[in-house]
Design goal:
By secondary structure, this protein is mainly alpha-helical. The protein contains 4 helices and 2 strands; from the N terminus they run H-H-E-H-E-H. A two-stranded parallel ribbon has the order 1-2. The chain is globular and about 35 Å long.
């Protein structure tokens, strides 16, 4: 992973703009996400580093629990459904200017 080029992109093609829009969040969710970002990100990372740190946090620190269905519950308990983990990752990387989407296969 150390050979992955650093990404400092500020603009993306028009087709990716929709993957940068943030969903409406509850105020408590927004505050909790800001605190989490402060805890896991240094602020000097390139976008590749940001994505890597957010991914590892969501994957390793949030336990799988399909009963938990909200971002607020997930951030408070450290447990969440796979979809909530994907949503949390999606929101956090978009907040850092990285296009992201969720694809669900059935």
């Amino acid at each position: 992973y150390k050979n992955i080029p650093k990404d400092y992109s500020e603009t993306y093609p028009k087709g990716l703009q929709k993957f940068l829009k943030l969903p409406k969040l509850l105020p408590e969710d927004e505050e909790a996400i800001k605190l989490l970002e402060t805890a896991i990100l240094e602020g000097t990372e390139d976008k590749t580093g940001v994505v890597r740190k957010i991914y590892y946090y969501v994957e390793e620190e949030i336990q799988r629990n399909t009963a938990i269905k909200t971002i607020h519950e997930t951030l408070n308990s450290g447990k969440g459904s796979p979809l909530i983990k994907a949503k949390l990752f999606n929101i956090m990387v978009r907040r850092k200017g990285v296009p992201s989407r969720i694809v669900v296969m059935v």
